[in-house]
C-alpha cells in the first residue's frame, strides 16, 4: 500500500463516518458540524485527484460560507427532534424509492464495464507547475462559455428573486439615512446663544 | 529492502517538515507575545500613559509573566456547557490561524510549501476560523457568548466577500495565485507595488482584514460594554489564552498578507538597495502599527453600520474596481495594471 492509498482510505473512513453521523446525530448542531467535517474530508479526497482548485473552492464556499449560515439557522431554530421523527415510517417508502434510484444512477455511471481501467486509461500525474485553475478558467471561458453565462444569469435571477421576496418596507419602523447623518453640520444641531450672566463674577454659590 | 529505504525517506521528510513547522511557529508565537507588549506600550503612549514597565527591563518580561499566569489558572467548564465542543472551540480557532502560515513566503526561496493556489488556500483556511468562534459561543450555553458568536458569524461571512473580491483584483494584476509570483510581479521599486493600481482594493482589504480578525473598531463579537466579552466570556486560563493567541496570530497574518499582496513583500522600495526579508518585516510592522493605531483612535462601530459598510460600500467598490482593472487591461494603458 502506497502512502497516497493509505491517505485515501484514512480520508474515506472519516468521510463515511461523518456522513453517517450527519443522519444519526441527535443534536442538529452536531449533525451540521459533521456535515462540515464531511465537506472538508471530501475536499481532501479531491486534492488527491489533483483537483486542487475545486477542493479549495469547496472549502471556501461550502465550509466557509454556506455551512456557517446553515449552522447559524440551526442554532437559532427551536427544533423538536421527536416531532421530526414522528413521520419516519410514513416517509420510508418514498425515501427507499429515492435511494434505490440513486443507487441505479450510480451503478450506471460507475459500472466498471464503462469506466473500468480497460476502457479508460489511468490519468497521468501532472507536473508540479501545472495549474488546473488556469485550465479550468480557459475551458469555462472558451468551450463552455454559453453554458457558463447561462448558469450565471440563472444565479442572478435567483438572487434578484430572493431579494425581491424578502424586501418589504415597514411604515412603522424608523430608518436611518447614512448620507444625511454624514452631512450634518454643527449649526444644524447646535445653537449658541449669547446671554447675560445671571450672577456677578466672584459671587458664585458659596465661593469655590 | 527497497520498501524499507522508502519508509526511511518518508520518516525523514516528516521529521524535517515538523522541524520546519516548529521553526515557523516558534518565532510566530514569540511575535504574538511581543505584539501584545507593543500594543499595550503604543496605546499607552497614545493615551499619555507609560504602559507595562514593572516586569523586567522596561516591562519587557510582561508577556512572559502574563502567559505563565494564564497557564497556572484553572480551565473552568460551565455546568450546562457542551463539553466536547467547548474544548473544540479554541482548537478550531487556533488551527486555521497557524495552518494558513504554511504557504506564506518570506523570500523567493524561504517558504514552507510553495503551492500554485496559495492565495486560494489562505482564503479557504482563514474562512474556517469562524467555526471556532461559533462553536465556542454555542457550546458555552450562555446568552452573551451566543450573541457574540452570532454577531461574529454574520460579520465574518459578510467581510469575507469584500476581502475575496479585493484579492480577485490582486490575482488579476499578478495573473497568478502563487504568492511568490504575486510578489515577484511587483519587482522594480516602490512605483511597481500593487497598492497604486489597486488602491481602492488595498483600502477595502485592510479594513475588511481588521473586521475579519474582530479587532477594534469592528470588535462587536466581544463588545465588552454590551455583551461582556462575547463568545469567550465563559473561557478561562489557557483556553482563553488560545483565543487570544489566535487573534494576534491572525493579526500578524493579515498584516503579512497585506505586505505581500499590496506592498511588494520582500522587494526593496528603491532599486539601489537589495531585496531582503528585513523589508518584509518592516512592512508587516508598519501594518501592525496601523491596527494598533486604529484601536486607539476609533470608537466601536454600531452593528447595523458594520453590515451597511460591508455590503453596501465595500462590495460595490471592489466589484466596480475589478471591472475597471479588467477593462483597462484591454486598453494600451493595461501595463499600468501589469
From TrEMBL, chain A:
GO terms for molecular function: NADH dehydrogenase (ubiquinone) activity; quinone binding. It comes from the Bacteria. One of its GO terms (cellular component) is plasma membrane. It catalyses: a quinone + NADH + 5 H(+)(in) = a quinol + NAD(+) + 4 H(+)(out). The keyword Kinase does not apply. Keywords: Cell membrane, Membrane, NAD, Quinone, Transmembrane, Transmembrane helix, Ubiquinone. Its EC number is 7.1.1.-. The chain crosses the membrane at residues 6-24, 31-49, 55-77, 89-110, 144-167. It is found in: Cell membrane. InterPro entries: NADH_UbQ/plastoQ_OxRdtase_su6 (IPR001457), Nuo/plastoQ_OxRdtase_6_NuoJ (IPR042106). It is a multi-pass membrane protein. Its main location: membrane. NCBIfam families: PRK06638.1-4 (NF005164). NDH-1 shuttles electrons from NADH, via FMN and iron-sulfur (Fe-S) centers, to quinones in the respiratory chain. Couples the redox reaction to proton translocation (for every two electrons transferred, four hydrogen ions are translocated across the cytoplasmic membrane), and thus conserves the redox energy in a proton gradient. Belongs to the complex I subunit 6 family. This is NADH-quinone oxidoreductase subunit J. It comes from Thiobacillus denitrificans.
From TrEMBL, chain B:
NDH-1 shuttles electrons from NADH, via FMN and iron-sulfur (Fe-S) centers, to quinones in the respiratory chain. The immediate electron acceptor for the enzyme in this species is believed to be ubiquinone. Couples the redox reaction to proton translocation (for every two electrons transferred, four hydrogen ions are translocated across the cytoplasmic membrane), and thus conserves the redox energy in a proton gradient. This subunit may bind ubiquinone. InterPro entries: NADH_UbQ_OxRdtase_su1/FPO, NADH_UbQ_OxRdtase_su1_CS. GO terms for molecular function: NADH dehydrogenase activity; oxidoreductase activity, acting on NAD(P)H, quinone or similar compound as acceptor; quinone binding. Belongs to the complex I subunit 1 family. PROSITE patterns: COMPLEX1_ND1_1 (PS00667), COMPLEX1_ND1_2 (PS00668). GO terms for cellular component: plasma membrane. Keywords: Cell membrane, Membrane, NAD, Oxidoreductase, Quinone, Translocase, Transmembrane, Transmembrane helix, Ubiquinone. One of its GO terms (biological process) is aerobic respiration. Its EC number is 7.1.1.-. It is found in: Cell membrane; Membrane. It catalyses: a quinone + NADH + 5 H(+)(in) = a quinol + NAD(+) + 4 H(+)(out). It comes from Thiobacillus denitrificans. NDH-1 is composed of 14 different subunits. Subunits NuoA, H, J, K, L, M, N constitute the membrane sector of the complex. PANTHER family: NADH DEHYDROGENASE SUBUNIT 1, NADH-UBIQUINONE OXIDOREDUCTASE CHAIN 1. The chain crosses the membrane at residues 14-37, 85-106, 118-140, 152-174, 194-214, 235-264, 276-297, 309-329. This is NADH-quinone oxidoreductase subunit H. The lineage of its organism: Bacteria, Pseudomonadati, Pseudomonadota, Betaproteobacteria, Nitrosomonadales. It holds the Pfam family NADHdh. It is a multi-pass membrane protein.
Amino acid at each position: 500500500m502506497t502512502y497516497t492509498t493509505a491517505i485515501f482510505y484514512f480520508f474515506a473512513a472519516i468521510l463515511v463516518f461523518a456522513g453517517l453521523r450527519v443522519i444519526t446525530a441527535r443534536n442538529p448542531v452536531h449533525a451540521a458540524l459533521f456535515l462540515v467535517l464531511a465537506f472538508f474530508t471530501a475536499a481532501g479526497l479531491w486534492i488527491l485527484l489533483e483537483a486542487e482548485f475545486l477542493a479549495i473552492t469547496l472549502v471556501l464556499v461550502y465550509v466557509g460560507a454556506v455551512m456557517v449560515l446553515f449552522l447559524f439557522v440551526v442554532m437559532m431554530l427551536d427544533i423538536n427532534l421527536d416531532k421530526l421523527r414522528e413521520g419516519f415510517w410514513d416517509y420510508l417508502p418514498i425515501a427507499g424509492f429515492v435511494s434505490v434510484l440513486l443507487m441505479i444512477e450510480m451503478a450506471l455511471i460507475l459500472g466498471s464495464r464503462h469506466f473500468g481501467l480497460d476502457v479508460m486509461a489511468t490519468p497521468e500525474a501532472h507536473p508540479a507547475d501545472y495549474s488546473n485553475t488556469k485550465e479550468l478558467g480557459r475551458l469555462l471561458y472558451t468551450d463552455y462559455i454559453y453554458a457558463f453565462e447561462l448558469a450565471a444569469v440563472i444565479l442572478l435571477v435567483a438572487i434578484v428573486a430572493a431579494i425581491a421576496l424578502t424586501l418589504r418596507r415597514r411604515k412603522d419602523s424608523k430608518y436611518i439615512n447614512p448620507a444625511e447623518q454624514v452631512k450634518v453640520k454643527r449649526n444644524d444641531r447646535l445653537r449658541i446663544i449669547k446671554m447675560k450672566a445671571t450672577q456677578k463674577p466672584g459671587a458664585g454659590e458659596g465661593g469655590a | 529492502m527497497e520498501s524499507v529505504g522508502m519508509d526511511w525517506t518518508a520518516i525523514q521528510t516528516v521529521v524535517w517538515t515538523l522541524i520546519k513547522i516548529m521553526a515557523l511557529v516558534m518565532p510566530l508565537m514569540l511575535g504574538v507575545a511581543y505584539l501584545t507588549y507593543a500594543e499595550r506600550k503604543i496605546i499607552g503612549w497614545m493615551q499619555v500613559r507609560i504602559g507595562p514597565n514593572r516586569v523586567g527591563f522596561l516591562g519587557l518580561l510582561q508577556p512572559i509573566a502574563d502567559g505563565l499566569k494564564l497557564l497556572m489558572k484553572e480551565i473552568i467548564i460551565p455546568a450546562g456547557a457542551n463539553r466536547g465542543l467547548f474544548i473544540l472551540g479554541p482548537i478550531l480557532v487556533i488551527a486555521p490561524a497557524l495552518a494558513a502560515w504554511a504557504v506564506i513566503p518570506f523570500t523567493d526561496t524561504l517558504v514552507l510549501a510553495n503551492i500554485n493556489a496559495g492565495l486560494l488556500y489562505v482564503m479557504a483556511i482563514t474562512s474556517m476560523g469562524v467555526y471556532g468562534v461559533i462553536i465556542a459561543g454555542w457550546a458555552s450555553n450562555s446568552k452573551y457568548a451566543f450573541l457574540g458568536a452570532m454577531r461574529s458569524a454574520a460579520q465574518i461571512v459578510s467581510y469575507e466577500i469584500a476581502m475575496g473580491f479585493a484579492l480577485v483584483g490582486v490575482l488579476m494584476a499578478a495573473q497568478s495565485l502563487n504568492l511568490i509570483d504575486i510578489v515577484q510581479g511587483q519587482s522594480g521599486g516602490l512605483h511597481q507595488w500593487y497598492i497604486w493600481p489597486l488602491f481602492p482594493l488595498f483600502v477595502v482589504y485592510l479594513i475588511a482584514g481588521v473586521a475579519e480578525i474582530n479587532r477594534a473598531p469592528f470588535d462587536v463579537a466581544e463588545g465588552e460594554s454590551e455583551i461582556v466579552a462575547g463568545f469567550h466570556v465563559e473561557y478561562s486560563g489557557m483556553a482563553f489564552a488560545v483565543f487570544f493567541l489566535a487573534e494576534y496570530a491572525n493579526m500578524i497574518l493579515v498584516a503579512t498578507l497585506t505586505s505581500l499582496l499590496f506592498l511588494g513583500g520582500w522587494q526593496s522600495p528603491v532599486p539601489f538597495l537589495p531585496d531582503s526579508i528585513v523589508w518584509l518585516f518592516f512592512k508587516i510592522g508598519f501594518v501592525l502599527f496601523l491596527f494598533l493605531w486604529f484601536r486607539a483612535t476609533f470608537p466601536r462601530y454600531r452593528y447595523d453600520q458594520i453590515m451597511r459598510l460591508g455590503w453596501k460600500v465595500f462590495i460595490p467598490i471592489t466589484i466596480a474596481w475589478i471591472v475597471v482593472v479588467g477593462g483597462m487591461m484591454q486598453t494600451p494603458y493595461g501595463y499600468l495594471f501589469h
